Amino acid sequence: MFESLGEKLNNAFKKFRNKGKLTEADVKAGMREIKLALLEADVNFKVVRDFIKIVSERAVGAEVLESLLPAQQVVKIVNEELTRLMGGSQAKLTIASKPPTVIMMVGLQGAGKTTHAGKLAGMYKKQGKRPLLVAGDIYRPAAIKQLQVVGEKLDIPVFTMGDKVSPVEIAKESIKFANQKGYDMVFIDTAGRLQIDEVLMDELKNIKAEVNPDEILLTVDSMIGQESVNVAETFNNLLDITGVILTKLDGDTRGGAALSIRYVTGKPIKFVGMGEKLDTIEPFHPDRMASRILGMGDVLTLIDKAQAAYDEKQAAELEQKMRQQTFTLDDYLEQLGQLKNMGNLEQLMGMMPGMKPGAMKDVKIDEKAMAHTEAIIHSMTRAEREHPDIINASRKKRIAAGSGTSVEEVNKLLKQFEQMLKMMKQFTNMGKTKQGKRMLGRMKMPF
After folding, report:
1. Beta bridge partners of residue 243, listed in sequence order
2. Where are the alpha helices (DSSP H) in 342-392?
3. How deeply is 231 buried, as exposed, middle or buried, from its count of CB atoms within 10 A (0-12, 13-18, 19+)?
4. How far is it, in rounded angstroms, from Cα 437 to Cα 428?
5. Is 262 within 8 Å of 228 (Cβ atoms)?
6. For the chain, which end, N or C, has fewer CB atoms within 10 Å of the first or last residue's CB respectively?
7. In sequence order, what are the beta bridge partners of 105?
8. Angle between the N-to-C axes of helices 329-341 and 299-309, in degrees from 0 to 180, rounded to the nearest 10
C-alpha cells in the first residue's frame, strides 16, 4: 500500500535534506517532484494542484526558510497537509440515539460490498452490539447465499425474504424484525451494477426514503484508482452518502483514491479493507495514513491491534510462569497464536517507525515457518511439550515425520525455545532487585 508514492515522496524530500538553508528555487524544484509523485499515484489533478499550492505557500514562509532544519519542516508540512486532505481526523460511524442504527451499504459490483457489510457487522459485534445482516440484493446470482455464508462464519443472523420480494419491502420488513428481536444495528446489503444506471439509483433512493438510514456507506475498490473517485462523486451526487469504505488497500494500490475522495466528495473515508479475511477492516485515521505514506510508521494502529489480540488473563498466567520458570512449548504456541491474531506480519512491519515505504517490497515474512512451528509442537506428546529435554533422537524423527518437517527444523525450534527460557531466567533474576521488579511489572508479554 502506497509503497511507490511513499518512495517517490521521500526521493523528493532528498532535494531539501542536503541544504543548510532553502531558497524559493529549492522549494519550487522539490514541489515539482512531489507533484509528479502524486500524479503518478493517480491522485485527482485538481487535488494535486491545490495541495501543491498550499504546501508551496507554507514552504516558502518564514517557518521553513529561517529554520535550522528546513528539510524536516517541509516533511512536517507535507504530513499535515496530507492529513488535512484526507479529512483531518477520524470520522466515526453515527450511532442512532434510538436503536436500531440502520446502515445502508451501496456500491458497484465487485467492490466488496457484501463482504464488508459482514466485516463491519463483525467489528461492532466484538464491541458488544447485536447486528443483523439484511440480504437486499435479489438480482446477483448467489448474492443472498454469499451473505448467509458470511453471516454463518461470524455467527451473525441474516434477514432474507428470498429473491421474489422487492428490495424496498425487504429493507422495510428487516427494520420491523430488528425492533421485534432486539437487534441494535442493521446492515442492509443492496444490489450493485457493473456501472451506475438509472434503475439502480432509483431503487437505492426508494430504499433510502423507506428506511431513512443513519449511514449510507459507499464501498469503493481502491485498485481502480481515479475511476473510484468518479464513482464516489456520482453516488454522492445522487444519494448524498455519509461515508466511504475503501477496499483492497492491501493490494498494489497507488493511493490516489485515499488522497482524492474526501476532497472531491466532501464525504469522509470511514473504514478501510485490508485483506480478504473477515476481520481485516480498520477505522480510517487520516493522520495515521499520512504517517504510513511518509514512512513515519503507525504506532497507534499497531497498539490497537496488539490490544485487540491481548488477553489480560493469559498475560497474568504467563508472567507467573516466567517467575516460576514453568514456561512450556504449549505456552510458546499460545503466544505465537496471539501474534498471528494481530494480522498480516508484513503489514505490521510496515507500521514500524523508520520503515520506509518500499523497504518491505522485497522482504517476505516467512509465515510458512510459523505454520511449521505449530505443526511441530502439535506433533509432540503432552509430556514432550511440558518437558522438551526428554526429546531424544528417535522422538525427533517421529515428530518430524508427524509434522511433515525435518529433524533439522525440530532441532532449530528446540534451540530457539531453549534460548527463550534462558532469557526468561535472566528477567526473573533481574526481577529480584527493586529496579528489576519495577521493569518487570511494566512489561506486558509477549510482544
Report:
1. 217
2. 345-350, 367-378, 382-386
3. buried
4. 9
5. no
6. C
7. 189, 217
8. 130
Spatial distance between the Cα atoms of 248 and 257, rounded to a whole number of angstroms: 11
Assess contact for 200 and 236: CB atoms under 8 A. Answer: no
What CA–CA distances, in Å, run from 309 to 130, 231, 298, 331? 21, 36, 17, 15
Please give the pLDDT value at position 444.
41
Which residues, in sequence order, are CB contacts of 36 under 8 Å at separation 6+?
8
Q: CB 140: neighbour CB atoms within 10 A?
A: 14
Answer yes or no: are the C-beta atoms of 395 and 410 closer than 8 Å: no
What DSSP state is assigned to residue 191? Answer: -
Kindly give, in sequence order, each residue whose CB lies less than 8 Å from that of residue 183, ignoring residues fewer than 6 positions away.
Answer: 99, 100, 130, 131, 132, 157, 177
The amino acid at 301: T
Q: Where are the alpha helices (DSSP H) in 41-154?
A: 45-59, 62-65, 70-85, 113-126, 143-154
Q: In Å, how far from its chain's centre is CA 358?
A: 18
Write down the pLDDT at residue 346.
54
Residues facing 187 on adjacent strands? 103, 133
* Alpha carbons 161 and 17: distance in angstroms, whole number: 63
Q: What's this model's pTM, rounded to 2 decimal places?
A: 0.65
| Stretches in the chain below the pLDDT threshold 50 | 297-300, 303, 309-310, 352-354, 357-365, 437, 439-447
pLDDT of residue 230: 84
Distance (Å) of CA 375 to CA 61, 388, 396, 424: 60, 15, 13, 24
CA dihedral 232, 238, 243, 245 (to 10 degrees): -40
Residue type, 129: K
What pLDDT does 381 receive? 93
**HSE value, Cβ hemisphere, 13 Å, CA-based, for 373:** 21
Between CA 64 and CA 58 the distance in angstroms is 8
Contact, 119 vs 278, CB < 8 A?
A: yes
Q: Peptide bond preceding 446: is omega within 30 degrees of 0, i.e. cis?
A: yes
Q: How many CA atoms lie within 13 A of 351 on its CB side?
A: 20
Collect all residues with Cβ–Cβ distance below 8 Å to 167 and sequence separation of at least 6.
Answer: 136, 137, 138, 190, 191, 203, 207
90, 299, 354 from 281: Cα distances, Å: 15, 17, 24
In the numeric block, which cell numbers belong to residue 68?
535550522
In whole angstroms, give the CA distance from residue 88 to residue 76. Answer: 14
**How long, in residues, is the chain?**
447
